[in-house]
Structures are given as structure tokens and as C-alpha cells.
Design a protein that fits this description.
alpha/beta; 2 domains; 11 helices; Rossmann fold
Length: 354
């Protein structure tokens, strides 16, 4: 389902620049945390592992100054976890155990697969790229109070499905609607809120940082639930199980669920985030990769990928980045208010990267 021949394509498949710049963010956060002796990279829903591979391709472990580096992947699909095993050694599967697969990356780093965040070691860098938009949602519509939208069999066309408004309150209705909600139609992702709370508690207690990158909004959108098949919009009720389903992430809800235990920054658009991480050298050109590349065809691919990632009419403003940090990461609590401040990264050499 992933990639050009599937139903949708993700940012790492567009260009390896994306993953390399997220690697810069990871390294910057490790430096900002005082360069701890352990660096544990955790990714939610890694799919085929493109993002993790690109992050590690910048020789991240070499720039970490001797810190013990390990990779931890939260992936409920054992089928998808096998996609990574082609580039791993010493990999085996375990049944009914917290770590159901372990191995070593091609660069010699230990790598583990988990089904739940609770089983992942604490004190890490957490990445969730196009993960929250795939979690299940509840839909509510304001009529005579809030009523939940559900799926039913279409009585007029047997064999087809339809959306219906439940005439009475469901158990979820009074629990999931925020006080003061003014929208007529609301989508709520309870599982996303629980995961954010778990991450916030971990970061508050043990340090580390989390970066969530996804399609989303700040509590303004209403009906974003949609399907994709063969890279085209698809009726979410047609042929269930044959298409990718997604809903935009409500970052305002995630901020509320995180609470005051951590510093929340963003969301900011992808274009601003990548430029802050150094995607430009001068003018509108990709950074390190383009300077090193001598192959004209690869250069053309890099420039095309850069345009797709940063162009406001393409992915530059559709994708949002949101981060949670430990309060010690800032010089003063007041810095957590308002717009996120740029990370203090001025050059790749400053991070120990060529």
C-alpha cells in the first residue's frame, strides 16, 4: 500500500532529504539535552523503515560522540516489520513478548520491534510521522445536542454502507466533546490523546523529546475523514479494507492532552521546519546532498524532491510539525509561550556532520 505503486506515498519516499533533516533535529535535541550517554531513537508506525534508514544515513551514531545508540520501532503489523528485516541481521520473531523482533542494523546498531509504547525503554527521542492521522476517530454532529455519526447498512441499496446520526447520546458523546466547542461537526481521536499523554509523562519524568509530523489543523477543521486508493481520493465506505483511511490531526487537542507537564511547540508548517533545519544553503537549493552529487539525473531528483517538500502549493504548508520537550530544554518557562523559537543550529559542521 506504500510508495508509487500503492495507495499513497510518504515524505521519506519523496526524498531522502526529509529523513536526513529529521536526523539533524534528533541530533540537535540530544545536544540540547546535555549530550546524554544513551541515544534511543523511537519511531511509531515505521512502515518499511524509510525514515529511520534516512535518519541513520547521516552517520548520526558517529556524530553522537560515543553515546550508545539504539533503534526502537513501535509497529503492530508483523508483516510491515518484516519489510525491514531484509537489511538486518540476527533477526527473529517472538510470540507474546514485549519485544517481538530484534536484530542489528547494517551499521551495527541494535534494533527492536514493539507492539506498545509501554514496552519501549524510557528516555528517548520519539518520532511519529504520518502516524496519528491513521488512528481511528469518532465523528460527532451537533443537532439536538451532540450526536455520534456511525456506519450503517443502506436499506435502499443492500450491500452498500451509509453514515447515520445516532438518535440518542452514545457513551462517547459526553466524554469526548470538549467544553466550549463551537464547530458543528467534530472528529475526535481518543487513542491519539492517550499516546500523547503517555509521551508527555515520559518526557516530563525522564527527559527526551517528541516530534509529531502529520496532516493537521489547530482545532478549526470539521470533516476531514477521507480515503485514498491508487493515489486518488476514494469513498471511505466503498470496498472496506481496500483503501487507506485518514483524518487530519487536531493539534489543539493534542496540546490539551499533553498539559503543562511538557513544553509544547508548534505546530509549524513543513516548509518552515525544514528551512529551520537547514534545507537551504543559498537560494532555493537542497543542502548537503546536492553539493556532493555529481550525477545530473540524481541532482534533478533532489531538486524535484525539494520542491515537493517545501512548495506551499504542494506539501510545504499542508504538513505540520509539533514537538514536546522537557521544561529543562528551555532557559526559562516563559519561552514556551507563543510561537516556537528556532533551534540553535547554524551549520552541519557545528553538529559534527560533513
Amino acid at each position: 500500500m506504500l510508495g508509487p505503486d500503492g495507495d499513497f506515498i510518504t515524505m521519506p519516499e519523496i526524498s531522502q532529504i526529509f529523513g536526513e533533516l529529521l536526523g539533524i533535529w534528533c541530533l540537535s535535541e540530544w545536544m540540547g539535552a546535555g549530550k546524554p550517554s544513551h541515544f534511543q531513537l523511537v519511531e511509531f508506525g515505521p512502515g518499511r523503515g524509510s525514515l529511520a534508514n534516512d535518519i541513520l544515513s547521516i552517520h548520526l551514531h558517529g556524530a553522537l560522540g560515543g553515546a550508545a545508540v539504539s533503534v526502537h520501532l513501535v509497529e503492530v503489523s508483523s508483516k510491515l516489520s518484516q519489510a525491514l528485516t531484509r537489511d538486518q541481521s540476527q533477526v527473529w520473531a517472538r510470540k507474546d513478548e514485549p519485544v517481538y523482533r530484534q536484530g542489528t542494523t547494517t551499521t551495527g546498531l541494535p534494533i527492536s520491534w514493539y507492539r506498545n509504547l509501554d514496552d519501549v525503554p524510557r528516555g528517548t527521542i520519539y518520532l511519529a510521522h504520518e502516524f496519528f492521522d491513521a488512528l481511528p476517530i469518532h465523528k460527532f454532529q451537533r443537532t439536538k445536542g451532540w450526536r455520534e455519526v456511525m456506519v450503517d447498512i443502506d436499506l435502499d441499496e443492500p450491500g452498500k454502507l451509509r453514515f447515520v446520526i445516532v438518535p440518542a447520546r452514545t457513551l462517547a458523546s459526553p466524554q469526548l466533546i470538549q467544553a466550549g466547542e463551537v464547530r458543528r461537526l467534530v472528529e475526535v481521536c481518543p487513542e491519539g490523546g492517550v499516546i500523547v499523554q503517555q509521551l508527555a509523562n515520559r518526557i516530563a519524568e525522564d527527559g527526551g523529546a517528541a516530534l509529531i509530523a502529520d496532516y493537521g489543523h489547530g482545532g478549526t477543521k470539521t470533516d476531514t475523514f477521507r480515503g485514498f486508493k491508487d493515489h486518488k481520493l476514494h469513498d471511505v465506505l466503498a470496498s472496506p479494507g481496500s483503501a487507506d483511511l485518514t483524518a487530519d490531526v487536531d493539534f489543539s487537542c493534542l496540546i490539551k492532552m499533553a498539559g503543562a507537564t511538557v513544553v509544547c511547540m508548534g505546530p509549524v508548517c513543513q516548509r518552515d521546519f525544514l528551512k529551520n533545519m537547514g534545507i537551504d544553503t543559498s537560494g532555493k537549493k537542497p543542502c548537503v546532498l546536492l553539493r556532493k552529487c555529481a550525477d545530473p539525473s540524481i541532482k534533478a531528483e533532489l531538486i524535484q524532491g525539494y520542491d515537493m517538500l517545501t512548495n506551499p502549493q504542494k506539501m510545504g504548508e499542508r504538513f505540520q510539525f509539533f514537538t514536546m520537550l522537557n521544561h529543562s530544554r528551555l532557559t526559562s518557562p516563559e519561552q514556551s509561550k507563543g510561537a516556537p523559537t528556532p533551534l540553535p543550529v547554524t551549520s552541519f559542521s557545528e553538529l559534527g556532520l560533513s
